[in-house]
Amino acid sequence: TVAQRLQREAKVVVALRAAGRADIDALLSVVYQEVPSRLHAMAARSLRAHLLKLRADGRAREDAGVWALV
After folding, report:
1. How far apart are CA 1 and CA 37, in angstroms?
2. What is the reported pTM?
3. Is-contact 16 67, C-beta < 8 A?
4. Rounded Cα gap, residues 51 and 46, in angstroms
5. pLDDT tens digits, one per residue of 48-57
């Protein structure tokens, strides 16, 4: 649902704020901590989509695979 996507996006923002700079693997363990490791490949794709949306919104940036808030 839209509400769930917005909640997950908020978790991504909180994780980025706490980390300062992080790659997808580092963020994955925080943002998707409740997801079993066998589903991490799918969760990583979802996380990347969230990060790309944040970048499109001007809220995040990526440099050589490392993400940060703007």
Report:
1. 23
2. 0.92
3. yes
4. 9
5. 999 999 999 9
